[in-house]
Amino acid sequence: MDLRLDVSERDGWAVLAVGGEVDVATAPRLREKLIELVNDGHHQIVVDLGAVEFLDSTGLGVLVGALKRVRTHDGDLALVCTESRVLKIFEITGLTKVFAIHGSVDEAVAAG
Amino acid sequence: MDLRLDVSERDGWAVLAVGGEVDVATAPRLREKLIELVNDGHHQIVVDLGAVEFLDSTGLGVLVGALKRVRTHDGDLALVCTESRVLKIFEITGLTKVFAIHGSVDEAVAAG
Amino acid sequence: MTRSERGTSDHSAATREIVELELPARPDVLALARLVVAGLVSGDPDFTDERLDDLRLAVSEACTNAIEAQQRAAPGRSAPPITVRCWVSAGRAEVEIHDNGTGFDPRALAPHPPVTDPARLDFEGGLGIPLIRLLSDNVEFRPSHSGTIVAMTFEARRARSGQ
Amino acid sequence: MTRSERGTSDHSAATREIVELELPARPDVLALARLVVAGLVSGDPDFTDERLDDLRLAVSEACTNAIEAQQRAAPGRSAPPITVRCWVSAGRAEVEIHDNGTGFDPRALAPHPPVTDPARLDFEGGLGIPLIRLLSDNVEFRPSHSGTIVAMTFEARRARSGQ
Ligand SMILES: Nc1ncnc2c1ncn2[C@@H]1O[C@H](COP(=O)(O)OP(=O)(O)O)[C@@H](O)[C@H]1O
Ligand SMILES: Nc1ncnc2c1ncn2[C@@H]1O[C@H](COP(=O)(O)OP(=O)(O)O)[C@@H](O)[C@H]1O
Fold it and tell me: Which of D97, D98, D104, D141 to mutate to test the pocket of ligand 2 (most atoms within 8 A of CB)?
């Protein structure tokens, strides 16, 4: 229910700002938005998790799927995440080794 | 559980600032604090409900009891309340006719 | 009214599914009861914040009475739990509070003196049932085999104002 | 384990009283399940915000699995409800999620390829049970007569740090 998605652009990257709760009820909307971005030719994507209050394994799975999708187009997907409650989930699942995780959108774009 | 009580003084009035949720679980603490004030010789009391997030009929009853108690000492008890969610409860029960309800502590003290 | 009877009414079964909460008969669970019912009903965007406040207070009053009745009937820790059942559909919330208490006759409750009468100050209690009546769109106090069921209806948009 | 058996354990009955929540087997109730369990457990000041986050996520994962299992077993609106039972005492929260689903063998789940293996990206699912194991202090997946009971324990202060 409570999921907010906002798309903007920065230096050729598509920036998807996600807010609210990502669980199995809301993750389909996140997945669709990411697929839409890729289909529209955006293969360099930053997903900004700064306003995410809750993220479950379905949400992690959607991000893994999106990473795979942009990679097949030689693109990249970077995450922005500073909240320890969200970072922790990437850490304990080992996904910090799969995703490039940055402290800000600027940092993500500069690194890309 | 979540009830905050703060006592201060203003121009000879005891000001009791109440915050959080007043229900049958927390109202006994409000009742005790008001009895304590009266027993300590404070018969001019302002109860500031500005930070109250929830107030039930037990809380209303405690305030009615406190008003009766100060009146027997020729004192007075005034309320400060601006939040419409709390004001509404006094209105629909008719208790706006029993209590003097003010928009600020200053106003309550000036009126007293 | 049983669950299956409810299911035959005008709304579809899918939107009438019930959330049921069983709580120990202790005052410190009231905050949780309010949280659950308001959390569930806030999923229906037709309910304004003000109407959610009405719901929260009426549910809290009914749960308080259920807990107190239950503790009178079975003092101390042996009191069985109370149950809150709630369902929402198309701008209407229905909430039932079930207790295993002593039962009572709501028509036999004496009204308070008018607020202008100084004797009004002698009454600290007795505002729970009046508040429930004022805040809900409909309320029934039904004797059950084990105690009382308080069944309240809340419309997102009230047809009538208070009383 | 029945409620009365629980009552005979080392904690007093008064602090072990159970909150039980019955929810329709639909994803949109997950937020409510998280709210109730976190709301109940936050009443124990020993639980830090971080530990409440752990609890919220593990409970949500277990409820998600229960809902999905239930919908596989009884597709559509006919799926029976799932039940969340929770009790807190002396710095420990216990949560059970009951479903009437298909059942499963948690030991038979294949682990993912290591995160350094590119094939890891082929797996979008399968992180729920690992997260439950990492975040809880203890978890049991018990077959029941009707489906599965996932019984998790959370200590306010963890004896071990995640796996
Ligand atoms: N569920 C119930 N079971 C038994 N008695 C009840 C119940 N609800 C209310 N009552 C009776 O009705 C009386 C009035 O209730 P209420 O208006 O809420 O005021 P109060 O609880 O302050 O007395 C209670 O004192 C109690 O005797
Ligand atoms: N309560 C349950 N009842 C039946 N099967 C379950 C239950 N919980 C988990 N499972 C099975 O275990 C698998 C792995 O679960 P999980 O690790 O949460 O990942 P995912 O749900 O993403 O597949 C599920 O796909 C399902 O087949």
Answer: D104
The C-alpha atoms of residue D82 and residue D72 are separated, in whole angstroms, by: 13
pLDDT, one tens digit per residue, over D6-43 is 333 333 334 458 999 999 999 999 999 999 999 999 98
Helix (H) or strand (E) holding D20, with range, is strand D19-23
Query: How far is it, in rounded angstroms, from Cα C63 to Cα C53?
Result: 15
Q: Which phi and psi (to 5°) does residue C125 adopt?
A: -105, -165
Q: What is the DSSP letter of A84?
A: H
CA C98 to centroid of ligand 1, rounded, Å: 14
> What is the CA angle C14-C95-C111, rounded to 5?
155
Q: What distance in Å separates the CA atoms of residue C24 and residue C31, rounded to the nearest whole number?
A: 13
pLDDT band at residue C9 using 50, 70 and 90 as cut-offs: very low
ipTM, interface predicted TM-score of the complex: 0.84
Break chain B down into helix, strand, coil percent, rounded to 5.
40, 35, 25
CA D85 to chain centroid, in Å, comes to 10
Nearest chain D Cα distance for residue C124, angstroms: 28
Closest atom of ligand 1 relative to the C97 alpha carbon: 1
Let me know: does C84 contact C95? Beta carbons within 8 Å: yes
Helix and strand numbers (H, E) in chain B are 4, 5
Q: Place B62 in a pLDDT band, splitting at 50, 70 and 90.
A: very high
Q: Which residues contact B6 (CB under 8 A, 6 or more apart)?
A: B16, B17, B19
Residue with CA closest to ligand 1 atom 9: C65
Pick among D3, D4, D23 to test the C interface (most C CBs inside 10 A): D23
**Taking a C-beta distance cutoff of 8 angstroms, is the pair B77, B47 a contact?**
yes
Q: Write the DSSP symbol of residue C45.
A: T
